[in-house]
């Protein structure tokens, strides 16, 4: 059985878990705190980031892009369409939006909120910096304006079919939603999309996640929210 080194609220770890669940593959989850820079983690990945995919007889697969490619290459059932579109134009749009989420959304929003609310509290016992959170939430509002436009013009993020880009965005928004940082009332189109993807069986394990000492925001696990 594959083993995934992860943090429960790390969006890239959640993306990998969604892929495994969508493909019906059981995976052992090992929770770690990458910011502690444990020597065992650094031996596998000097960058001290997750996710990391481990499997007997295989070299460790390190990093978001490497892990999602490994899952897509190794675990897609023969009778199931993968999350990478086969049509070139659709695949290009999927990669464009995947990069938007993994790079732009992460660098402008998610990593700051997780740093302030999770890492600082755990590592240094500090309280979040209000100014940093204020900027991150303002950036999130701008991203949601764009996502609202996307979902007003198409059924799924990259077009008519669900792709890896949908799971990537859902992974980030689920982490932010756990912390209570998504203003769903001002994002109706994105909310409708999220309700659909949140109802998929693959999402159940994420909705059951809890971080010790930090309860989920109201409505986090509700399908009708």
Descriptive keywords:
54% helix; 225 residues; mainly alpha; globular
Structure overview:
By secondary structure, this protein is mostly helical. Helix 1 links the parallel strand 1 and strand 2. The model has no long low-confidence stretch (mean pLDDT 95).
Summarize the structure.
The chain is mainly alpha-helical. The chain has 8 helices and 4 strands. The protein has a 4-stranded mixed beta sheet, covered by helices on one side.
Rg for CA atoms: 17 Å
Strand fraction: 5-15%
Distance between termini? 35 Å
Separate helix tally: 8
Strand order of the largest sheet: 2-1-3-4
Overall geometry comes to globular
Structural class: mainly alpha
The strand count comes to 4
- Low-pLDDT stretches: none
Name the helicity range.
Answer: 40-55%
Mean pLDDT over the residues: 95
Biggest sheet, in brief?
A: 4 strands, mixed
Secondary-structure element series: EHEHEEHHHHHH
Topology:
Blueprint: E1 3-6, H1 11-22, E2 28-31, H2 39-44, E3 52-54, E4 61-62, H3 64-75, H4 88-124, H5 130-153, H6 164-178, H7 188-198, H8 204-207
Parallel strand pairs: 1-2
Antiparallel strand pairs: 1-3, 3-4
Helix pairs in contact: 1-3, 1-6, 4-5, 4-6, 5-7
């Amino acid at each position: 059985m594959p083993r995934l080194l992860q943090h429960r609220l790390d969006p890239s770890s959640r993306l990998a878990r969604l892929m495994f669940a969508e493909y019906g593959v059981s995976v052992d989850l090992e929770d770690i705190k990458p910011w502690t820079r444990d020597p065992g983690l650094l031996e596998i990945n000097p960058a001290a980031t997750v996710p990391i995919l481990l499997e007997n007889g295989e070299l460790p697969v390190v990093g978001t892009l490497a892990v999602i490619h490994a899952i897509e290459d190794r675990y897609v059932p023969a009778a199931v369409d993968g999350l990478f579109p086969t049509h070139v134009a659709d695949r290009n749009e999927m990669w464009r939006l995947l990069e938007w989420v993994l790079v732009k959304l992460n660098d402008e929003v998610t990593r700051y909120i997780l740093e302030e609310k999770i890492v600082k509290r755990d590592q240094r016992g500090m309280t979040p910096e209000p100014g940093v959170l204020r900027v991150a939430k303002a950036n999130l509002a701008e991203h949601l304006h764009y996502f609202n436009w996307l979902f007003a013009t198409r059924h799924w993020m990259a077009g008519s079919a669900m792709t890896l880009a949908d799971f990537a965005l859902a992974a980030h928004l689920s982490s932010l939603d756990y912390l209570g940082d998504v203003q769903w009332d001002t994002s109706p189109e994105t909310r409708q999309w999220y309700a659909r993807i949140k109802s998929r069986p693959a999402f159940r394990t994420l909705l059951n996640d809890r971080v010790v000492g930090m309860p989920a925001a109201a409505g986090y696990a509700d399908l009708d929210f």
